[in-house]
Amino acid sequence: MLKVYTQSLGCPKNLVDTEHVLGSLGIFEAVDELEDAQVVFINTCAFIQSAVEESVESIVEIATQANEDTFIIVCGCLVGRYGVSELSQEVPEVNLWLETKDIDNWGKITAAAIQEHFKIELVAEKKQSFLYNNSQIIIPESGRKLSTGPSYAWLKIGEGCKHNCSFCTIPSIRGKYRSTGKDILIQEAKELINTGVKELVLVAQDVTAWGSDLPDKDLRPLLDGLFSIDGLDRLRLMYLYPAGMTDSLLQYLKEASNKFVPYFDIPLQHAHQDILSKMGRPFAQNPEIVVEKIRKYFPDAALRTTFIVGFPGETDEHFQKLYNFVEKTRFHQMGVFAFEQEEGTVAAKMSNQVEDIIKEERKDALMELQSEISEEILEQYLGERMPILIDKEHDEWPGLYVGRTWFQAPDVDGITYVSAPAEEEIKPGMIVEADITETQQYDLVALM
User: For a disulfide at 46, which of 70, 78, 333, 382, Cβ 3.0-4.6 Å?
Assistant: First the structure.
């Protein structure tokens, strides 16, 4: 049986791509040790320079440590950003580079290359034909090869980006926004739910842009189909651009289904209009408008966002506006990035670049503020009995489980530790009721 070692770097969208490629390989053994692998599959990130460095280091390390006859495959944003010609010269040990322009056919290309290299016929599981981004892919009946466990799965609904933010490399790497068809996504979602998955998390570079390139021009028909799937308990939407938070969409979400998780992940990036305009954001107005609109329809919504500090021309006044906005808005969750001059972007060439030490000071100040806010918000849940989706058993403590409440998204937010009585049979993928007995800075502790 083919032994495969996988490394997926960067965002959940990459992970979904990896899972689909693995789904094209039929039966194989996933191995944890590089030395045991016949095939290595690396999906890279190159959104910012630090991600580029991590991707390059991973490839070089694997190429150096892998067995001489290991078949190494590399795909993802690093390949899209720098091209096969340049990368293949730098790391000739890589056997197959998958170009971003061929993403719809990665599974087919990978399967064919492995069969040719090893002179084998890949052993198929019980399968069914499945279309993904207009390409014919054969995947297991249970869906793609999930790596997130039985509780949740990411559902990637589009590729590329239609916006032109001055700091971002994504459009040049991944191309224009392309929505995956509604019927394709609903079928994939059903496949995932049939495996026992309770929560689907929709992801794209901009989820609200889904359908803008299709006849419907609207996200709601897709959501209608997803909400109707039996067995789905939670539907979470990530990467919601502020420009897409319209009254009509919010009204729809309010009335659509109790499966919708009132958790809004909105990358605002800044709070001052001058900086937002220089960033080229699709919504360059006062972000308070978006927050107020969401809370009008969902007064108790959990809000998550990301900000960039130290953008070219950001003054103390600009930053103070952002700081005050965070202090007033009280996000459940927040991420902060120090601006990086990314080669090929408009912002990299702008004048009035901010010194690195100032960027880091501003980042630290915002994160310190947010840690206090997050801790205070979590304290409000002390003593409440809440439904918690169990993701996995604790690695070290029998009877202790790791799960998430409705306001905790996988990977990016805090978690909830659940202690269960010995007689309770708890399994990952179950939703259990538990009392919140302790709150921490970002995590919760609960007792069944």
Answer: 78
